[in-house]
Structure to design on (337 residues):
């Protein structure tokens, strides 16, 4: 006779892992892999268990982020997923860092949309002196006028550059690991995984918070996703954006990302179990891959980008507000833990 688990037994297994995590005992890599390999019919039980962890640390709050592409295209790196890379033929805007008025207009829009954090992003290997000076000038003005937290995403940073960002008022720096160390050479050859880790260490040592996550759907194995989640945990990253590959035509990864909504939900749940106290953000590609199941992601994640991404459109802000309200959740203006 087949030994088929009942719904109660399935739920009990994930609840036991949640109890373990809530008691301060980390989940194992083996159990994290089990989450990614769990069947679709387990997803609701998995999310219910993950919600217990999310609720303890974040209640029913959702923090909104606003993304601003301050410099677009013109990047010398060959990141295979990126429409702004030197090897991409995707028709994206190409411009140097925007002027003050444009950056301030975007900050106003971020404030009006209920975002707490304004993400200032440039496409580059790392910032040049002109770009550093522009950021140092605009950040204090944005913070003074709109009270927004600032997350800067400027590419690879030296320790001296990280110190300058801290001094001008930047709260966080985003620099995604993107995938595992083992898989990294498959998605980029112009810099290494170690380069990215070093930038995060410079950010941490300068006294800023680290924002770092990744992208799933780039041909990686489940082991790669688990490895990335644990590397982020070991680095002590405070905020984790999880993207789902938008396989943009004109990039080497066009046609990739065979992800189901359940795949995305399993990944979000696994990241919550591995990083229980860290802000977890549903990021690029959610509209494409989660589709009508987007609300379920917020049972384990606790933040969203509101509006558009760097070179692709996002869901209309009102749809996000309605989704959050329908869940009975509240938009928070408190910086993530």
């Amino acid at each position: 006779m087949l030994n088929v688990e009942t719904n109660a037994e399935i739920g009990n297994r994930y609840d036991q892992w949640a109890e373990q995590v809530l008691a301060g005992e980390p989940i194992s890599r083996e159990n994290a892999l089990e989450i990614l390999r769990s069947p679709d019919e387990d997803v609701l039980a998995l999310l219910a268990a993950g919600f217990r962890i999310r609720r303890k640390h974040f209640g029913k709050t959702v923090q909104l982020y606003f993304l601003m592409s301050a410099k677009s295209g013109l990047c010398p790196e060959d990141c295979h997923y990126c429409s702004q890379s030197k090897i991409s033929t995707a028709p994206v805007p190409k411009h140097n860092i925007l002027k003050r008025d444009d950056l301030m207009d975007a900050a106003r829009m971020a404030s009006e949309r209920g975002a707490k954090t304004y993400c200032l992003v440039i496409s580059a290997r790392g910032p040049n002196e002109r770009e550093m000076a522009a950021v140092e000038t605009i950040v204090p003005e944005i913070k003074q006028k709109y009270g927004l937290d600032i997350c800067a995403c400027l590419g690879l940073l030296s320790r001296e550059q990280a110190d300058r960002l801290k001094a001008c008022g930047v709260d966080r720096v985003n620099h995604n690991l993107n995938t595992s160390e083992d898989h990294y050479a498959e998605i980029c050859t112009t810099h290494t995984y170690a380069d990215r880790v070093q930038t995060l260490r410079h950010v941490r040592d300068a006294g800023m918070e680290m924002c770092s996550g990744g992208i799933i759907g780039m041909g990686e194995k489940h082991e790669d996703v688990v490895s990335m989640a644990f590397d982020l945990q070991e680095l002590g990253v405070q905020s984790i954006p999880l993207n789902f590959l938008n396989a943009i035509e004109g990039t080497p990864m066009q046609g990739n990302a065979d992800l189901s909504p359940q795949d995305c939900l399993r990944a979000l749940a696994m990241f919550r179990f591995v990083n229980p106290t860290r802000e977890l953000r549903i990021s690029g590609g959610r509209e494409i891959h989660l589709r009508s199941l987007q609300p379920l992601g917020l049972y384990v994640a606790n933040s969203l980008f509101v509006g558009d991404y760097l070179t692709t459109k996002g869901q209309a802000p009102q749809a996000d507000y309605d989704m959050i309200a329908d869940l009975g959740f509240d938009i928070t203006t408190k910086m993530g833990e």
Summary: The longest helix spans residues 129-146. The beta strands are 61-71, 117-122, 149-153, 172-174, 209-211, 214-216, 239-244, 279-282, 303-305, 330-332. The chain has one domain: 51-330.
